[in-house]
Design brief:
heterodimer; A: six-stranded antiparallel beta sheet; four-stranded antiparallel beta sheet; 21 helices; 10 strands; B: 178 residues; alpha/beta; two-stranded antiparallel ribbon; 6 helices; TlpA family protein disulfide reductase (chain B); disulfide bond (chain B); AhpC/TSA (chain B); oxidoreductase activity (chain B)
Chain lengths: 649, 178
């Protein structure tokens, strides 16, 4: 048995069991027999195992340098270090779709285990089977990584050098796919709810999956930003690159949905909104995949254009058409019964969702605008950061304000007791902005600082007032604090909000106060800049199996030695700069080796970027993931209630 | 009504994206900074199987300005592009070899893997060994494979990046033939 044969076998089994699962759920739906759902669940597990075998086979081929299959011959090299060999699986088109299929089958299986509703589960499971079948059929028939190579080469070119430059490349795509693929579960629940016309329970059934996927999307976007910062060597973390945008659009729509879903749960409002949002969010993940794999846009992320472009475009249109056709059919039944006051929690949640939808629209427009212009006038234009920044700054402020106000206001209508909180928040806003201006910060940065405090006061009030209330009722502050554990989910949400406010602060400072300078220094020479002394001690070359590197040893006073480097890979003439970053709580010192004396190694050209608060961006990512985990962690109380009798018996 | 509008919007988006997919061409004719300038000379050791016929060193300067030259940069790890064009290059050499000199520059490779490649395609035009890829730098090459056409008066005339097909190669050769 060779890796190629094993991979083909695994894929065939996965397709077979996906078809079997699909047939079973159709039988369950037509015959109204829940036993077939159980059969489908087993098929889901077997389809996952089949895909896992294919995944394992491709890893086997990569780790043993087997070039007899197309994927390794094109994308692998014996020179790669082991971790790069492992991650090469998702460094190119075929493997990345195989990883996608693997995660999709995993989600189908796990989500199927938790589906309890007799009416909706056949449709929801069927939707997931259809989606996974789409990916598996593509991997097996259109872009098969296991296609045999008649005369295998002795070595291959290896993966894209950019992907070999940082270990984050082994992590970021998996996080991203876990988020992207995870959104298929809420989509499946929504389709099931619309097909069966059972609108009440789907949101609470799917909420856990939605937040789960949201958490991974969030982590993936920050991880991508960090990779960009640490690898691309331009000193920034977000460039409005089309594919960054493609990951941001589903995040924005999913975030909108997370909030409107709460309103549907509490007040049964926004029901058609939620169907539309979840369809758009899932479609946006496919849109992102289409953009990266069709050659439509040019980007650091783009894979070589293959035959899958038209296929993904078709899939995207099928998703949109299915979702909106079903919504059109049921829209008269899901019209909102109650009315929404603007000045209430649901009113502001709706407004917040609108802000996110507008943001998503702005990103879509900015990403596709160059294509539109080229289609109609033939001119090549590029939509850069200024367009996005101009629109995102006001939208971001609106989001920051709503994010603080929404949770403070009660459901239905404002009550007098919240007025005191609002007054305190207003004072914090004015004070924060005023102090910022007095310190000489720009208006935008000061306003962000004001809104950060605005959020902080709101969160403080939200945390303190229930404790005070509990303490009044139960007696003693400690009992009140103990009550915190009872609403872990709510505090998880507050933590995420705090982290978003912190992100805004970090973005405002890092975008506004940036020092970017460049200088050519002799070896041994010192440079006084940004309050530090930078000394170049040495320039040396290091030969590794997969690359050749030129490294400068640079001392930054108070921060120690940094090693910015230029890496040369054989597949590319242009060297790849690996910056060296010294993080501090206040500012980052980011050094890039721009050029060096190739003849006598006597000088280097260094670029120094000093950016404030970037560390806090990464810290807030960690807080967001923690907050999400708090929301998702299974509730221990409910489990205990169920188990207590057994324990006592 | 709303359904019709929705379908129209979806079709419009689909049409634009479809159009976007069709218009991205692969440009393989790259302008060379060397275009019209004298081709850089080099002297390198041929791969083992060519030493009997071409000696221990092939110096391009011996041929520059005397006859047209096709220079092809390749490597054994360059799959699939170099594997696709190798038979085409060999066929062209057999057809025009009496009037045009073909030189393969094996770039950043290992000698045994390069030899295996030569044997696999039965290459009979001279191939030299450049493990550090220095000649590629002189020619401003981006990455293997790349093919350069040098006229009989020793100037770089055309450059092709990526795998070359028979028609493109023939056009290139006809341009430098006297």
């Amino acid at each position: 048995m060779t890796p190629g044969m094993l991979g083909q076998l695994g894929l065939m089994l996965a397709v077979f069991f996906s078809v079997a699962g699909l047939v079973s759920v159709v039988a369950a739906w037509v015959l109204r027999d829940a036993r077939y759902v159980r059969v489908a669940r087993r098929a889901a597990l077997l389809a996952f195992l089949g895909t896992l075998v294919a995944f394992g086979a491709l890893e086997w081929a990569l780790l043993t340098d087997d070039f007899s299959i197309l994927y390794t011959a094109r994308n692998h090299t014996t020179a790669s270090p082991t971790w790069v060999k492992f991650a090469t699986l998702w460094a190119a088109l075929e493997g990345s779709i195989l990883l996608w299929a693997l995660l999709q089958t995993l989600y189908t299986w796990l989500a199927g285990l938790r589906m309890r509703d007799y009416w909706t589960s056949p449709v929801a499971l069927g939707t997931l089977f259809a989606v996974q079948l789409f990916f598996l059929v593509n991997v097996l028939f259109v872009i098969n990584p296991f296609t045999p190579v008649p005369n295998p080469p002795a070595d291959g070119p290896g993966p894209n050098p950019l992907l070999q430059n940082h270990w984050m490349m082994a992590v970021h795509p998996i996080l991203m796919y876990l988020g992207f693929v995870g959104l298929s579960v809420p989509f499946a629940h929504a389709i099931a709810a619309m097909v069966t016309r059972r609108y009440q329970t789907w949101v609470s059934e799917t909420k856990w999956w939605l937040i789960f996927a949201w958490g991974f999307l969030t982590a993936a976007i920050f991880a991508g930003g960090w990779w960009s910062y640490e690898v691309l060597g331009w000193g920034g973390y977000w460039a409005w690159d089309p594919v960054e945008n493609a990951s941001f659009i589903p995040w924005l729509l999913a975030t909108a949905f997370v909030h409107t879903a709460m309103v549907q749960e509490r007040r049964s409002l926004f029901r058609s909104w939620n169907f539309a949002l979840v369809t758009l969010a899932f479609a946006a993940t496919v849109f992102g995949t289409f953009l990266t794999r069709s050659g439509v846009i040019e980007s650091v992320h783009a894979f070589a254009g293959g035959p899958v472009g038209p296929i993904f475009l078709g899939f995207l249109l099928v998703i949109l058409t299915t979702g909106f056709a079903l919504l059109g059919r049921v829209s008269s039944e899901v019209r909102d019964a109650g009315s929404v006051r603007l000045w209430s929690r649901e009113g502001l949640l709706l407004l917040g969702a609108l802000v996110f939808v507008v943001m998503a629209f702005v990103v879509i427009l900015g990403t596709l605008f160059p294509l539109l212009v080229e289609a109609f006038s033939g001119d090549k234009v590029s939509v850069g950061a200024p367009f996005f920044n101009q629109l995102f700054v006001p939208l971001g402020y609106a989001m920051l304000a709503l994010m603080a106000l929404g949770p403070v206001l009660p459901w239905r209508r404002a009550e007098p007791e919240t007025l005191r909180a609002l007054a305190a928040m207003a004072v914090a806003l004015v004070l924060g902005t005023g102090v910022g201006l007095a310190l000489g910060w720009t208006l935008w940065v000061s306003l962000t600082a004001g809104l950060f405090l605005f959020n902080l006061v709101a969160l403080a009030w939200l945390v303190a007032s229930p404790i005070a209330r509990k303490a009044r009722v139960l007696g003693g502050v400690r009992t009140g604090v103990g009550a915190l554990a009872w609403s872990r989910r709510r505090y998880g949400g507050y933590l995420v909000h705090f982290a978003v406010a912190l992100t805004a602060l970090a973005i405002a400072f890092s975008q506004s106060y940036r020092l970017d300078v460049q200088k050519t220094l002799e070896i041994g020479e010192s440079w006084q800049v940004a309050g530090r002394t930078i000394t170049v001690h040495a320039l040396r070359a290091v030969e590794e199996s997969h690359r050749y590197s030129v490294i400068a040893d640079v001392e930054v006073s108070g921060l120690g030695l940094l090693h910015p480097r230029l890496n040369y890979y054989r597949t590319s003439r242009t060297p790849f700069a690996s910056p060296a970053v010294a993080y501090t709580l206040g500012k980052d010192y980011y050094l890039v080796l721009q050029a060096f004396d190739q003849k006598d190694s006597e000088w280097v050209t260094l670029r120094l970027v000093v950016t404030p608060l970037v560390l806090w961006l990464w810290a807030s990512a960690v807080l967001m993931v923690l907050g999400t985990a708090m929301i998702l962690w299974p509730s221990t109380r409910r489990v205990q209630v169920g188990r207590t009798p057994e324990v006592e018996a | 009504m709303r359904t019709v509008a929705g379908i129209l919007v979806a079709l419009a988006i689909g049409a634009i994206l479809w159009w976007g997919m069709q218009t991205k061409d692969e440009r393989s004719e790259l302008p060379s900074a060397l275009a019209g300038r004298p081709a850089p000379a080099f002297a390198l050791e041929p791969l083992p199987s060519f030493r009997e016929r071409w000696g221990g060193e092939l110096d391009l300067a011996d041929y520059l300005g005397k006859q047209p030259i096709v220079l092809n940069f390749w490597a054994s790890w360059c799959y699939p592009a170099c594997y696709e064009e190798a038979p085409i290059l060999e066929a062209a050499w057999r057809r025009w070899g009496d009037r045009v000199l073909f030189v393969g520059v094996n770039t950043q490779d290992e000698i045994d893997k390069a030899e295996k490649f030569v044997t696999q395609f039965g290459l009979s035009f001279p191939n030299v060994y450049d493990p550090r890829g220095k000649v590629g730098i002189d020619y401003g090459m981006y990455g293997v494979p790349e093919t350069f056409a040098i006229s009989a008066d020793g100037r770089v005339v055309r450059r092709h990046a990526g795998s070359i097909d028979a028609t493109q190669l023939e056009a290139m050769i006809r341009e430098v033939l006297p």
